[in-house]
TrEMBL record, chain A:
Ranges that cross the membrane: 234-257, 277-304, 333-357, 378-399, 411-437, 458-478, 702-721, 755-783, 795-815
Compartmental location: Cell membrane
A Pfam family recorded for this sequence: MacB_PCD
Coiled coil, from the record: none
Keyword Transmembrane helix: yes
Record-annotated MacB-like periplasmic core domain positions: 462-670
Keywords: Cell membrane, Membrane, Transmembrane, Transmembrane helix
Protein's UniProt name: ABC transporter permease
Residue stretches making up the ABC3 transporter permease C-terminal domain: 237-348, 703-822
TrEMBL record, chain B:
UniProt protein name: Iron ABC transporter permease
Pfam families: CrtC (PF07143), Lipocalin_9 (PF17186)
Location of the AttH domain: 62-255
SUPFAM superfamilies (UniProt xref): AttH-like
Organism: Billgrantia bachuensis
Origin superkingdom: Bacteria
From TrEMBL, chain C:
Annotated Pfam families: ABC_tran
Name of the protein described by the UniProt record: ABC transporter ATP-binding protein
The keyword ATP-binding appears for this protein: yes
A single MF term (Gene Ontology): ATP binding
Taxonomic path: Bacteria, Pseudomonadati, Pseudomonadota, Gammaproteobacteria, Oceanospirillales
Keywords on record: ATP-binding, Nucleotide-binding, Transport
PANTHER family hit by this protein: IMPORT ATP-BINDING PROTEIN, TRANSPORTER, PUTATIVE-RELATED
ABC transporter domain boundaries: 2-227
Signal peptide: none
Family annotation (PROSITE patterns): ABC_TRANSPORTER_1, ABC_TRANSPORTER_2
Record-linked InterPro entries: AAA+_ATPase, ABC_transporter-like_ATP-bd, ABC_transporter-like_CS, ABC_transpr_LolD-like, MacB-like_ATP-bd, P-loop_NTPase
Nucleotide-binding as UniProt keyword: yes
Amino acid sequence: MLTALATLLSHYKRHPGQLAMLLLGLWVAGALWSGVQAINASARDSYARAEALFSTGLDRLEYRDGEPLTREDFVRLRRAGLPVSPLLEGTLEAPDGTELRVIGIDPFTLPGDSAFAAASSQGELTDFLTPPWQTRIAPDTLPALGVNAREAPGAEPRLAAGRLPPLVLSPMLPPGTLVMDIAAAAVLLDSGEQLSRLVTAPEVLERAPEGLVLTRAATLVSPGQLTESFHLNLTAMALLALVVGLFIVQAALGLALEQRLGMLRTLRALGVSGRGLVGLLALELVLLGVIGALAGIVSGVWLARVLLPDVAATLGSLYGADVAVTLNLPWHYWFGGLGVTLGGLLLAGSGVLWRAARLSVLGLGQAQAWRAGFYRQLRGMSLAGGGVAAVGLVLWAWIVRQPPGEGLLAGFGLIAALLLASALLLPPTIALILAGLGQLVRRRPLGQWALADLQLQLPQLALAMMALLIALSANLGVSSMVGGFRLTFLDWLDQRLVADYYLRPAPEQFDAVQSWLAERPEVAELLPTRHAEATLLEIESPDGLRVPQLPVGLYGITPGEMLIPSWPLLSTQAGRDAAWQSFAAGEAFVNEQLAIDQNLAPGDRLTLTAPSGRETLTIAAIYPDYGNTRGEVLLATPQLAERFAATPSSIGIVLTLGADEVGLRDALRQRFELGSDALVDQREVKRVSVEIFERTFTITRALSVLTLAVAALALLASLLAQARERRRQLAPLWALGVPRARLVTVQLAQLGGMALAVGALAVPLGSLLALGLVAVINVAAFGWRLPLHVFPGDIGLTLTTAGAVALLAAALPAARLWRTPPRALLAEEGGT
Amino acid sequence: MRPWLAVALLLLTLAGCGEETPSGEPAGFAGLGEAAGSFAQAGPDITLRFPEDHAAHPDYRIEWWYLTANLEDEHGEPLGLQWTLFRQALTPPDQQPEPTPWASDQLWMAHMAVSRGDTHRVAERFARSHSASDSSQAGVVAEPFAAWIDHWQLASHEETSDETSGEASKTDTFAELQLTAHQDDEHGGFGYDLTLTAEGPLVLHGEAGFSQKAADGQGSFYYSQPFWRIEGEVTLDGETRMVSGRGWLDREWSSQLLDERQQGWDWFSLHLESGHKLMAFQLRGGGEDGGNYRSGTWISPEGEPTALAPDAIGMTPLGTRRVAGREIPNRWRLEVPGAGLDLVVEAPHAERWMDTSVPYWEGEVVARDADSGEDKGIGYLEMTGY
Amino acid sequence: MLEFNQVHKAYATPQGPLEVLTAVDLELRPGGSLALMGESGSGKSTLLHLAAGLDLPDSGEVVVAGRSVSTLDEPDRARLRRETLGLVFQQFHLVPSLNVIDNLRLQARLAKRETPEWSAHLMERLGLAGLERRYPEQLSGGQQQRLAIGRALAPRPALLLADEPTGNLDETTAGEVLELLLDLVREAGSALLMVTHSLRVAAPLDRCLRLTHGRLEPPSGAEASHR
């Protein structure tokens, strides 16, 4: 058996290119897949740690007027029987500039087991509670403190704010977080008797105590939920890359089998059983698979390391989720990566094994059967493609019936079905096109030959072309979506951020600041905002009455000369002007998320909880609110203050033309001792927003380009694999008097033409994909829909890319053909 | 003295479930045998003073206020209840932290339980305080008396103190107390709202309040108020009943309670029909030659205590029941020949497991004459270390 | 039609240059036929390749239809093959992507010299009528070689070069194919240079030469006597 295996493997010694191609496919597929999975696993680990932390999953209490809570309040509420626990939160700057979150807790009153689990992973609670106290810290936070893991336990790193209590490692904690006793935190943060907030176990309090606001944990969406769509997106892209990589593998395996059919027959004739042979081939697959997959995983981890800081930054800025910038991989990750790559390989190789199992010893009828086999294959592809398309249709019909915000997975399923169906239908379509063109060029022998020959190559090229189609469509779809998103988002930013400065004074200063500003000559208009939380109790619409019991945010804006013309509205009851008039008179706007989620239309009436009991509002319009994940109701600031006792939030400052910005800023800071972050420049907000946006899609773009590169590799690999065979096909033509230059040209034209055809098919498919992304995936993931933008530039780029990819891939075999001396062609010809 | 478990709890909790303590091996049950260090030491030479000694003694390592009661509702159906506040010093007096906000040197834990038939509801709470701070989540003050953690509290019943009859003086804020504690749970909540009236004097155990706990002289300050008449309301699983009955309050503080070898105890407090009260305990493993160390007090209806020497008490388990996965002796033979007592003490309901941070058994018992089977009294039994 | 003047051809091998053809002189008149015999490795195929302009001599001159092959560039040599020559190979070398009729017409069309009547005639004569829509691999070996012959003759080439055209066929089929080949060459008016190692195959041709170690010799006695 060992001899037989060695014999099988000897093929790769003669054809190292095939081996390289196989391993390359596995490597690329494995690397992209495991890279993305590494990112996902690492991020999920961070979420899990964050969710295990006390500050998430708990209801919180704060003063309605924004005054800080104190220890006094805590004791008072505890003595009144309320199960509240004090939480002190603040940030400290690490020596390397990283912001570290300090959380001070009281382990005795903190609800739930998570508290103790996180607080007493090791050592004694006494040490946690008494000087010198302890700092619980996750190992991946240590680098920020400049401490290595071995020296960490017991170390007391010095920060600007003072020495940290001795470190105790607690891997369960989220990255960048220091947990310590509230007494220690109060000293470090110099917060005196003050608290950040009181927390309780979720849903324990029925209502907030007098003067306090209760924020339910349910309204604080956990990072895991928020980022789910992001990770699903990544996973989908990685899966795409995996599939495309496996196309290469499949092509290489098929070729290796084809060329070894004689050898296999000989081995059978020499007494190796059919089953044994299949076993050997499977063993060979596994051997190659393990090598390729391991290489893939190693590179994947490297890729993840490179991408992770970007991903972490994106998730951090987009969702406020803390994700470790160093990889943190659970053991199952490694097996998972190996498993998926090997599983994919076996799937790709199953066809080969099946064929080997059915191998006839005498090899009779094989040569004659291929054409019928090819037609059977085309028929099979058409049927399968039709089937998958039908599944896609069913999914689509189902999604349409789903409430908005649901069906994210089904949405991805739909897109997968769309891609797969298109890929499967591609070879039959190309075959049809070729047959049709063949009719057209009957008079041109070389053209006719080129088309017929292309049809003959189709079985070998089909997979690579399918890969190219998928990659091109995905690329076009993604870039259309990102481009459209970008346009919409930038417009929206311009519309929403109308003031030059945004000021966030302390609540007790709010009124004073506002009146001071109103007197300043530099100020053209003030746009104070307020914020409150409420529960949506009832919806009264023409369809009837519903009771959603949904927590919503209430925002107050100031409709004025600046805001009204620019604030975007999606739909109104009676036109823009009327909507703004009603708004000023006390009617509400709701954001698109809430409207889609609750199926609201202008004219519907909402009843919300309010300090006075309940308040009923009529919806005057719906406005877009990109990037938000929550339902929001918008009211005029004075109305919100009066009816919902909303806390002041910020003041937008519109300056007069040519106003002295620096003077105003300085005067403001001097007069009110504002913190450095209280005054925000609108330009800065825009810059940061755009930066966040760009980062969000960096990864998506990078992955789609990588996928395209993989598809190009697949094509190149397929072409190289059959280059020898091709030359054998071309030699007689050359002998018949077709000059080599023309042969090379025809070759390039064949591939370029085919690729262009694929590119042309990718254009509608990519647009459909973009539509699916903005109209299905986006709605399901974020709750808002994007307008579909078509970018001719992107389409042109897609076509160019397709042609370029094909020509690049064809260039190497063509160059070889060009360089091959005629005699060598003949030698090959003779060497059958 | 059930209280050790208190400490037990605290220390176990502190020790992260007893995985490691600085001294290596846990000393005694739940670390109660730890050496006193710079803490104040209980000894026979100190005289107790009231009402001052009703308050907390932060210089001692551990302390508790421990109330049990045998009650009946309007239909004569028996109920039991427990309310306990434990204090544990986090640091020796010479190492107290600066009184910065939130800094603490004292740790508080409270247990409450209501039992009726096979129902047994238990809750516990924790808090911290600094002995230099006057407003805290938990604490005990002497005048007027108040012991609290959150909204659970045992405090002087000031409104009615004028009408108090009996031996307590009109100015004794300890003579009439109000006990309030409620806890929400998935069964509809439980708790109580009770008035406690002292119908007898405070009883000092051992040597004028110094109670020896081991043959080598370890001990604690220990006094009781066993003469509470109790009236009020008890809520169980959301259902409130009017109740009345008798209660027993134990006060104990110490810095080293147990001998290092003692691993648990069995403690009885009985209200006998004759009007006598009996407190008796054994510490398993702390006696001469490693035997059990026994002690107790025989209390006359007027409150006159007679200390019982180790060999004056007989305690023999007669039968066990399986409770919470452990074999718990729920039937005992309790003999005090000097008082002419030969009792079989039995827990009618064995399911009285206190499933708290440090678990133990605490429940109502009925005492019958060993020969005649005649009812002799009721009381409470606490067993730890099983 | 075809002339070799003092043609030398050597190939580089790891053991040094290998002289394949040495001072070969040869002449074939239009319409004439010549059999070239020799052992394996005697240089027969090389000579044929030089005649087809598939390869160039190291020295000497190969003249095809009055043009010296060495003076032609690649495209012109290709054109020469397309328009003047027909090639029949031992391995047939049909184009698998084209069906029978398109294979037959391929070279004629490439040379823009297709005459449908002649093609139809060839199909008829070659016994391929009715098989137009088949693909090469669906034909028997004899049919495939006949198709290859048809493809070479379809443009009515001035010179047909055949390399062991019956080498892959069984004896009976070989006989039939050979007979057909000679008939059709005559009908087409082409000259024929055929490489073979079989006396029986060489016999019907006008002349016969033997290549031995790269030198052209008159036929041996046996061959002469057969003639």
